[in-house]
Write a structure and sequence with these properties.
This is Acetate kinase. Belongs to the acetokinase family. Homodimer. By secondary structure, the chain is an alpha/beta fold. The chain has two domains: 134 residues, ATPase, nucleotide binding domain (Nucleotidyltransferase, domain 5); 174 residues, ATPase, nucleotide binding domain (Nucleotidyltransferase, domain 5). 41% of the residues lie in helices and 20% in strands. The chain is built from 14 helices and 13 strands. Strands 5-4-3-2-1-6-8-7 form an eight-stranded mixed β-sheet, with helices on both faces. A five-stranded mixed β-sheet has the order 11-10-9-12-13, with helices on both faces. Strand 2 and strand 3 form a beta hairpin. Helix 1 crosses helix 3, helix 6 crosses helix 14 and helix 10 crosses helix 12. It starts with a strand and ends with a helix.
């Protein structure tokens, strides 16, 4: 069976994973591209000069070849793209028209799409005969109704693309696919939390997104590692007067959130820090998740299951416990020992609302979407 190469290109890193069928067989990463670059394959790491994405991908292909998996074994490459805009709402084979669509979304996701595009173009140049596919983080949220996507702005402004798109869609799509196998059926109304350095929540009705906390960009919504989350627009205007547009954008994306509140962006460090500032940052994060969760329950008309994923969602039991305590009014119950142990099911026997931890499997979902397209002859 041929291998499928999944590629996740960031601004200064490229992660790749090899899949044989639905099983991941190897992963590698090039980090700090353009700086003190490093390449990691499994447990082995080395320093290299990697000035750009093409050099980084070339080095990764060499490393995979040395590990016994040369490109001749690849059947296709599948790429993660953060923003598909209003038109790219499903996984697809990369064509010149698709590349143009991704390029058109650069103003919508200036921190993400340029790197995603660079990765696709670099790998296509290195392996021109290989079919390339793209999966979009925004695609899962294309099912949201207009009342959930439209800002209360003039029509001509919306026509420029200023609307709510939602993100972490690949993670949520993976949850929607796996939940029926875990619970025996798909719950009608699911509140899902993807909690990591970037954090969001999603309301799923019958496995489809009907509302989510992130909006036009990944900045809106929950308190995050370095992002402010939702904030009064007038505060943004005043900050822009004080610090300029570029300075304000940097502050809201890179200097706010847990970092701004607690002096650290890493939840593990904050939980280990007894200082009042750190305690407050953790509580702010929990309060934000509970508040947005309540709004999303209203959008679904109730609650039938809660799911946690992402680095914090999977590993920070005090944060999970705090959020679940905040949702107790909705009938949510959990077993403290199961939560502390990070078990898959956190709800006690007889509880009406299942509470689960499902590890993020975005790469596996991207691979599955590409395989489906290949099987369909696309």
């Amino acid at each position: 069976m041929t291998l499928l190469l999944v590629v996740n290109s960031g601004s200064s890193s490229v992660k790749v994973a090899l899949f044989r069928g639905d099983m991941q067989v190897l992963e590698a990463q090039a980090s700090e591209i353009g700086g003190q670059s490093r390449l990691r394959l499994g447990a082995q790491e080395q320093s290299l000069s990697l000035p750009d994405h093409r050099t980084a991908l070339s080095a990764l292909l060499e490393a995979l070849t040395a590990a016994g998996h040369p490109p001749a074994q690849f059947g296709a490459a599948a790429h993660r793209v953060v923003h598909g805009g209003p038109d790219l709402t499903r996984a697809c084979r990369v064509t010149p028209a698709v590349l143009a669509g991704i390029r058109a979304c650069l103003p919508l996701a200036p921190l993400h799409n340029p790197a995603n595009l660079a990765g696709i173009e670099a790998l296509a140049a290195l392996l021109p005969d290989l079919p390339h596919y793209a999966s979009f983080d925004t695609a899962f949220h294309a099912t949201m109704p207009p009342v959930a996507t439209r800002y209360a702005l003039p029509r001509e402004v919306e026509a420029r693309g200023y609307r709510r798109y939602g993100f972490h869609g690949l993670s949520y799509a993976s949850i929607a696919e796996r939940l029926p196998g875990v619970l025996g059926a798909m719950p009608g109304r699911v509140l899902a939390y993807h909690l990591g350095n970037g954090a969001s929540a999603c309301a799923m009705r019958d496995g489809r997104s009907v509302a989510t906390s992130m909006g036009y960009s990944p900045l809106e919504g929950l308190t995050m590692g370095t992002r402010s989350g939702s904030i009064d627009p007038t505060v943004v205007l005043r900050l822009a007067e004080l610090y300029g547009i570029a300075g304000t954008e940097r502050m809201l994306n890179r200097e706010a959130g847990l970092l701004g509140l607690g002096g650290r962006s890493d939840m593990r460090a904050l939980l280990a820090d007894p200082a009042p500032r750190a305690r407050f940052a953790v509580q702010h994060f929990i309060n934000s998740a509970v508040s947005h969760g309540g709004a999303l329950m209203a959008a679904m008309g109730g609650l039938d299951a809660v799911v946690f994923t992402g680095g914090i969602g999977e590993n920070a039991s005090p944060v999970r416990g705090g959020i679940l305590d905040g949702l107790a009014w909705a009938g949510v119950r959990y077993d403290a020992a199961a939560n502390e142990g990070g078990e898959t099911r956190l709800d006690p026997t007889g509880a009406a609302i299942p509470v689960l931890i499902l590890p993020a499997e975005e790469e596996a979902h991207i691979a599955a979407e590409a395989r489906a397209l290949m099987k369909a002859g696309e």
